[in-house]
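Query structure, 172 tokens:
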């Protein structure tokens, strides 16, 4: 399959979410009281969004763009921060309006965990790499050509629930 440079971006655009996402979380914390149950619901919702986007969008509709990441895991490939920030701003307004700001906090914290873990799992020299060996093994298996399994990056939950989990062998 041919790669696509459509999602290639500058290093600034790639790393910007690591700055803007915590700001959205802080703003949401300022706007409304915290509800721990809603935060957990938001985290759970995020894991389903992450799994669904990776499996049903990145591996079908945007397959060529995503394949570029599979070919060069260190390239600045992804969804631009202006798109994620615009989406988060709209979602925060809606969540605040319907009094579900803590759901927003959970979901956006889940996204932050996802981008952080995904960044680390492709950089074995990173200090945090040693803390996520199972996630790394799952994701390494996912990156093998011809294996359409293990779509959950930050959690294998939905891979287990929806039957797309493949256990990495001990020999890898």
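Result returned for the query:
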């Amino acid at each position: 399959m041919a790669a696509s440079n459509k999602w290639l971006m500058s290093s600034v655009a790639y790393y910007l979410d690591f700055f803007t996402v915590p700001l959205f979380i802080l703003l949401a914390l300022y706007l409304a009281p915290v509800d721990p149950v809603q935060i957990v619901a938001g985290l759970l919702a995020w894991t389903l969004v992450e799994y669904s986007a990776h499996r049903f969008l990145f591996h079908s509709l945007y397959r060529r763009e995503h394949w570029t990441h599979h070919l060069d895991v260190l390239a600045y490939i992804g969804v631009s921060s202006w798109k994620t920030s615009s989406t988060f701003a709209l979602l925060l307004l809606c969540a605040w309006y319907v009094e579900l700001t803590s759901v927003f906090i959970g979901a956006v914290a889940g996204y932050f965990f996802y981008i952080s873990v995904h960044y680390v799992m492709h950089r074995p020299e990173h200090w945090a790499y040693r803390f996520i060996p199972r996630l790394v093994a799952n994701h390494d298996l996912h990156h093998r050509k011809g294996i359409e399994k293990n779509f959950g990056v930050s959690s294998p939950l939905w891979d287990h629930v929806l039957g797309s989990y493949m256990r990495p062998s001990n020999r890898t």
